[in-house]
Design brief:
alpha/beta; 4-stranded antiparallel β-sheet; 8-stranded parallel beta barrel; 620 residues; 15% strand
Length: 620
């Protein structure tokens, strides 16, 4: 049995991804990064996962500069990132040349340990990234995504000890330096952990690390049983960002093992001081905290299996579409959707895809709206599924899919043409920096928007401003007017306004409450990425409209003004909840107007196209 237990800290990545929808800003992490460097950690997870996307999409912070700052502040600690195999830090598979360029650039910018996983545990989706990591001379930690078919213990025909041991042997043959068990939803039971770690240690001679979440309440017990079984390293984080849907706290783990043969030999005092700093800054992020439950744990995760980072994002997304009251319906729908799709392990991007599809199923009817990513998954572009999708669902999902109705069996990366040159071409007027080229390659819509902001071509939107600076500038303070101003002087009511019954002194009052700043954000929501304002149109009598079913960003139009379309033809693609959805024409007709532009941010109900009804295209 190994002696000293090694600990990786996740505070700067997965901890705030799990609890704060990945909104922790670099300015609030820098003061403790240098102190953490002196602890003697096995590694510090600072990058990857959703941090890249959130930094550019919500915070107007450059993720590449974040990484370089961490490297400067933590030169003595191996820096780790979570890499989604062929999907990198995005939500689709990228071309091999993008994967190779991204890994090489990340290595040169400061990543020492690449924790590489595939949502389907398909080794074909890991091969290009694995080779690139080894070429860069960095530590390759190959990752097994842990799952069970449904609630309860490990076993059954799919996810059993033989399955996991076989995955570990395959990864060892791919020249992995270590193996990580990624229990993204916190569903690994303690005694299953013991058996699993023992089986993996027997299957390979590689060090084994455990990553788990506290969601179900089992994580501390699971970690201790894994330690008994000989686990080499575990993930933990600072207490203010621990527990709930995050990782176990590092502080009690240190004390629990103190004086034992697995004592991690970490000093508690500086860790407590770092926790005090976090406590002082976290109130700024309260709007992103999941506050819908009184319980610290969520036993329902044993059914829905949604990982920690997805829960806070799911709450945020439902709040954006004014449907937070339907969270329980969505959580009930998720296991049904997962079963329909062949039990994919619920880790990014599959957790996002299944979760978003469950939202669509609840809000619009089952499989009435299907994201581009789900279509691609069923077709096979995300890799080899662990089980086949339900035939009726697969047929409905692939109906009209332009690639075909029969899923492929080849490695998805083999079907993707090189993308780096087109990315360079797309941003050459703005930048030739590889940072920007890769940002665009990963996120053409939101990435381009960020690049324009970064180079001063567009202002930083109010919603991307740091909380303190925005408040100081008056952006989130009440308007300069009396509290009881006449309605004519009040800001326009936004779609976020909600009605409440207030009972006071034996009387009942109906009060509408609108968060301060909502109207201003609503007024600015339609600003295209290239500047300017979107003038919202309304259809004339007899005309039909294509409206945004939820807030999002216009990715592209698939038609032009004057074009004839049939009912059901795709008109516009919007990115919502990080997924792409094609919106169809409700009628056969001629496209009269397309009010938005690529990159425009739109609210629920905004008109994106106006169609003048005529006979079907090609008729008459």
């Amino acid at each position: 049995m190994p002696a000293l237990l090694r600990i990786s800290d996740t505070t700067f990545r997965d901890a705030h991804q799990s609890l704060l929808a990945t909104r922790l800003r670099m300015a609030d992490m820098e003061p403790i990064a240098a102190r953490m460097d002196g602890l003697g950690l096995y590694s510090a997870e600072v990058w990857g996962g959703a941090t890249f996307d959130a930094a550019t999409r919500f915070l107007a912070e450059d993720p590449w500069e974040r990484l370089r700052t961490f490297k400067k502040l933590m030169p003595n600690t191996p820096l780790m990132m979570l890499l989604r195999g062929q999907s990198l830090v995005g939500y689709r598979s990228y071309a091999d040349d993008v994967v190779e360029a991204f890994v090489g650039h990340a290595a040169s910018a400061g990543i020492d340990v690449f924790r590489v996983f595939d949502a389907l545990n398909d080794e074909r989706n890991l091969s290009t990234a694995a080779r690139a990591v080894k070429k860069a001379g960095k530590h390759l930690q190959m990752t097994i995504c842990y799952s069970v078919t449904h609630g309860g213990r490990m076993g059954g025909p799919i996810f059993n000890l033989d399955y996991y041991a076989e995955r570990a042997r395959v990864m060892a043959e791919m020249d992995a330096d270590s193996i990580c068990v990624k229990d993204m939803a916190g569903i690994l039971a303690p005694y299953d952990a013991y058996d699993l770690v023992a089986a993996l240690k027997a299957a390979t001679n590689l060090p084994v690390q455990l990553h788990t979440h506290y969601t179900s309440g089992m994580a501390s017990m699971t970690v201790l049983k894994a330690i008994e079984a000989g686990i080499d390293a575990v993930d933990a984080c600072l207490a203010p960002l621990a527990l709930r849907t995050s990782q176990p706290a590092i502080e009690p783990l240190i004390i629990s093992l103190k004086g034992t043969e697995r004592d991690p030999a970490l000093d508690l005092d500086p860790i407590l001081e770092m926790g005090d700093h976090l406590e002082s800054v976290l109130p700024k992020y309260s709007e992103h905290m999941e506050t819908t439950r009184a319980a610290v744990i969520d036993a329902k995760v044993l059914s829905h299996q949604i990982p920690g980072g997805m829960i806070s994002n799911l709450v945020s997304q439902l709040r954006e579409v004014d449907a937070l009251d339907r969270l329980d319906e969505v959580l009930d729908e998720i296991p049904r959707t997962r079963k329909d799709l062949g039990y994919p392990p619920l880790v990014t991007p599959m957790s996002q895809m299944v979760g978003t599809q469950a939202v669509s199923n609840v809000l619009f009817g089952r499989y009435k709206m299907v994201s581009r990513q789900i279509k691609d998954y069923v077709y096979g572009l995300y890799g080899r599924p662990v089980a086949d999708a339900a035939p009726d669902v697969a047929k409905a999902v692939l109906e009209g899919y332009e690639r075909g109705q029969s899923p492929i069996t080849t490695r998805p990366g083999d079907l993707i043409e090189p993308e780096m040159e087109s990315a360079r071409e797309a941003v050459k007027e703005l930048s030739t920096d590889l940072d920007d080229v890769l940002t665009y390659a990963l996120y053409p819509t939101t990435g381009m928007r960020f690049i324009r902001i970064k180079h001063g071509l567009d202002p930083v939107p109010d919603e991307m401003q740091p909380p303190i600076e925005a408040a100081a500038a008056g952006r989130r303070q009440a308007p300069a007017q009396p509290v009881a101003a006449p309605l004519s002087q009040a800001p326009p009511k936004s779609s976020r306004a909600k009605a409440f019954n207030v009972y006071l002194d034996g009387r009942a009052y109906r009060v509408e409450v609108d968060p301060v700043g909502s109207a201003q954000r609503g007024a600015a929501h339609a600003a295209p990425a290239g500047g300017g304002r979107l003038t919202l149109k309304a259809p004339a009598a007899g005309e039909a409209a294509v409206a945004a079913p939820m807030p999002g960003i216009v990715s592209r139009y698939t038609v032009e003004v004057g074009q004839r379309v049939d009912a059901g033809d795709a008109v516009v693609v919007i990115e919502s909840m990080k997924m792409e959805n094609s919106l169809p024409s409700p009628v056969a007709g001629t496209v009269r107007e397309l009010p938005a532009s690529q990159g425009a941010t739109v609210a629920k109900g905004d008109i994106l196209a106006i169609i003048t009804p005529v006979g079907p295209a090609g008729s008459g």
